[in-house]
Design brief:
The chain is mainly beta. The chain has helices at about 105-110, 190-200; strands at about 1-5, 20, 25-30, 35-40, 50-55, 60, 65-70, 75-80, 85-90, 95, 100-105, 110-120, 130, 135, 140-145, 155-160, 170-185, 205-210, 210-215, 220-225, 230, 235-240. The strands form 5 sheets. Strands 3, 5, 6, 9, 10 and 11 form a 6-stranded mixed β-sheet that branches. It has a 6-stranded antiparallel beta barrel with strand order 12-15-17-22-19-18. A 4-stranded antiparallel β-sheet has the order 1-4-8-7, with no helix packed on it. The longest helix is centred in the last third of the chain and has 10 residues, at about 190-200. The two termini are about 30 Å apart.
């Protein structure tokens, strides 16, 4: 069984650290559609998935699940149900996720951006499925941060020639703007935010607050530690907006 590493909810696994964990708790809006995937072989039972109260560990809801054939395997697609505002974690079989908060506080949500992403197809990787049941599926990952004006850069791809009078003639020109997405602000986020950001940008379809972006060149998230001894980081990633309107979105 593979718990997809593209899931926006982080499952703990085995971690060893001597530093203090980040105080940041993952956020989702009540209106976000939070999906998770599990890929399992034929004969493996479908894991029971439930949402638990982070305070006392009691199960409060079961996740809605759809199962589809994925080659010789199966993909279980779970969707987080509508939940009241509060703190929860997901229990997937025996795997527990990090705690997260569901909120409708616009003062908090205004300092976040929603990243929606989907792989190009089902052929590139075996740990995620982009098209399920003939429909494209998107993961939703909300992060604290945004695009700062100081992170804008401008570039141009052009060709010129100089006349005999030393005048410059522009033959053609295509301008572009690159933006640095900052994740974490001053408080920082856990290290796995940077890992997932780097991973989701391998997808063909990436939308940030409804606008499509792509990784600029081979840039990867740059991290800065907020405080020595604290596992809390601020990530910056250079992106370029895609102006083409894709009919698949």
């Amino acid at each position: 069984m593979i718990v997809s590493p593209f899931n926006p909810v982080f499952f703990l696994g085995n971690r060893k650290t001597s530093d203090f964990d980040s105080p940041f708790v993952q956020l989702f809006s009540k209106d976000d559609t939070v999906c998770m995937q599990v890929i399992r072989a034929e004969g493996e039972p479908r894991p029971v998935c439930s949402v638990c109260d982070a305070a006392d560990g009691s199960a409060v809801a079961s996740l809605v699940c759809e199962t589809h054939v994925f080659g010789d395997s199966y993909v279980d697609c779970y969707t987080l149900p509508a939940l009241p505002c509060g703190f929860y974690y997901v229990l997937l079989g025996e795997n527990a996720s990090e705690a997260f908060e569901i909120t409708d506080d616009e003062r908090v949500l205004s300092r976040t951006v929603l990243i929606e992403y989907s792989p190009a197809d089902n052929a590139g990787r075996t740990d995620v499925v982009g098209i399920v049941g003939g429909e494209r599926k998107y993961f939703s990952f909300r992060v604290p941060g945004g695009f700062k004006d100081e992170g804008w850069e401008f570039s141009v791809d052009n060709e010129q020639f100089v006349t005999q009078y030393s005048d410059i003639v522009e033959l053609y020109g295509r301008e572009s703007t690159q933006k640095a997405l900052t994740v974490g602000f001053s408080c920082g986020v856990p290290i796995w935010y940077g890992q997932l950001l780097n991973r989701l940008l391998t997808c063909r379809y990436v939308y940030i607050d409804g606008e499509r972006y792509a990784r600029f060149g081979s840039s990867a998230p740059e991290k800065a530690q907020t405080m020595p001894g604290m596992n809390s980081f601020v990530f910056t990633q250079k992106l370029q907006r895609i102006n083409y309107i894709d009919p698949e979105k």
